[in-house]
């Protein structure tokens, strides 16, 4: 692993555990604040970001972004964009250059629509659900390794959304991930109230039913403030779908996850925007990290469960491992 990222993970501080039902959250802290950039939310609210289809015909895995801000804009892996011909999510974290036009890699999160409902995209207020982000991250890692492209396995993304829809008992006319979030709005609000943002918080490490799911952390507490709700919902939706399982959520497991993460293998690729995109893989862990000017901007790490582990009961999982 790159020394900068390994050192960054080593110095992560775990806050006091917060718990609700089967989900636990450790607020994450790390070093000084960096105000190098603004977020997607801030840029769109200020009218400084224009996101459209590549052209009138559109291209499922690509979108065009015009950044009119005089500072970089951070787009975070998994953030969803709604509108145009179909909703999409970011395939990786990108630090857009100021006053720039960029083609960004995305995945579709609305399989049943390919027609305009708006000319420009807006943010949906969501980050892709945990299991969609995790499988998407794995396929992007593979694509970069084999083809040098930030492409996901679109079929796997759709299958992940279909699975979440089935478990949520949601029937969407366009098979849209956004409809799943809307159907669980009240439940997700309950989770949001249970995990309030802490002063200086830059990220979160999440456990569900006694197992670490993953973490997200940014270099700026101000940026994280705007992303806290979206990132929390991504993990909370998973917790809702897995409610009823037993498991002990503890600090030792969280620390072990960080220790394991530092042993990950790191493949470095030039980012679409500023900096370097690091793809991280280790025993039971995968994810990515964006660095720029010797600084870690965003890191996302996921527990790499076997494909059939999520959604199984604890008893089923134990039987699967013994067979």
Structure description:
The chain has 323 residues and is of the alpha+beta class. The protein has one domain. It contains 9 helices and 18 strands. Strands 1, 2, 3, 13, 14, 15, 16, 17 and 18 form a 9-stranded antiparallel β-sheet that branches. The protein has a 6-stranded antiparallel β-sheet with strand order 5-6-11-9-8-12. The C terminus is likely disordered.
In short:
Helix content is 32%, strand content 31%. It has 323 residues and is an alpha+beta fold.
Number of domains: 1
DSSP strand count: 18
Structural class determined from secondary elements: alpha+beta
What percent of residues adopt helix (DSSP H or I)?
25-40%
List keywords for this structure.
single chain, 323 residues, alpha+beta, nine-stranded antiparallel beta sheet, six-stranded antiparallel beta sheet, 18 strands, 32% helix, 31% strand, globular
Present the secondary structure layout.
Layout: H1 3-10, E1 13-14, E2 18-20, E3 23-29, E4 38-39, H2 40-45, E5 49-53, E6 62-67, E7 73-75, E8 79-83, E9 88-90, E10 94-96, E11 100-108, E12 121-127, H3 130-146, H4 154-168, H5 177-183, H6 185-194, E13 203-208, E14 211-218, H7 221-241, H8 251-261, E15 265-270, E16 276-282, E17 285-292, E18 295-303, H9 314-322
Parallel strand pairs: 4-7
Antiparallel strand pairs: 1-3, 2-3, 3-13, 5-6, 6-11, 7-10, 8-9, 8-12, 9-11, 13-14, 14-18, 15-16, 16-17, 17-18
